[in-house]
Amino acid sequence: MHSIEIGSLVLNGRLVLFLIYGAVGWLVLKLRFKNLKENDTVMGYASTAFLLWLAVWKGSFILYHPVEFINQPLSLLYFDGGRRGLWTAGLITVLYIAYRSWKRRLSVNIWIGSGIWFVLGCWFAYHMLYLVVGEKPVWFHALSAALALTFILLFIFLRLGFKRELGYSVWFLIGQTVLGFGVTDRQLWLLSFSKPQLLFVIAALLITGWLWLDDTKEKGQTHG
Description:
single chain; mainly alpha; two-stranded antiparallel ribbon; 4 strands
């Protein structure tokens, strides 16, 4: 979806989609931090981080396509930095959040947990939109949206706490990886895994490793 036409108005389709994903992710995150003392701090940083991500992603068009921008400055309204722009925006946003966390001495578990909630909201919105437009395979988008919604509701009703939510999120990542094997026309990157599947596996391993390190640290402090 490169553009959306509303009468004579032409909008950047990817930008509109990312705004929708971000809005749903923000609402889910807002629900998680309702009545918590960290609400104002985390929601403020999360909003800034998302806007920063959008700005860098759009602005990266100037970095990666300087000639096109110089020849046609208005092209910035319709184009972006592509895949490289996405990775650049993601890296800068992570560095921003890490810096803010260090300055305010916020728990790493809170920020990782916040990221999980935000991603679940975005993931749900992403697959629901694909269901609405009839993107195939329909079963994959339906089950992916249902899986994300299941974990959102699970976290809401069980009130597990950030650390336990991280542990449960590993199962979401595993579930999404398993669903991917049912998509027969996926592009394979390594063995029988597609690129999204590999990212899910890596994320699951990183979260598992972090939880292990955190538990080891807590046990060391207890025995010490």
